[in-house]
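*** Protein under study ***
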Amino acid sequence: MDILVQYFGNLRQVTNKEKETMQLDENATVQSLLDELIKQYGQAYQTAMDTIKGLRILVDGRDISTLNGMSSALKNGCTVVFLPPIAGG
């Protein structure tokens, strides 16, 4: 199935992409997507994920904390957004 992934902040710098479509198995979860991204982009992606404090992951606009966390199921055509906190002043 196809999943649209959107990146912001450090993750956009690591991937050098604003968005991309990932092909995953039919039973994919947020965790399996993350595993695939780490496999594709390497340790730099993992490090970026680990250093972003307050990172929100949205599936079709819903925070995974209101779903099943990293076990949240993905469906064909859904959008996953990795959204770091926005600093302001």
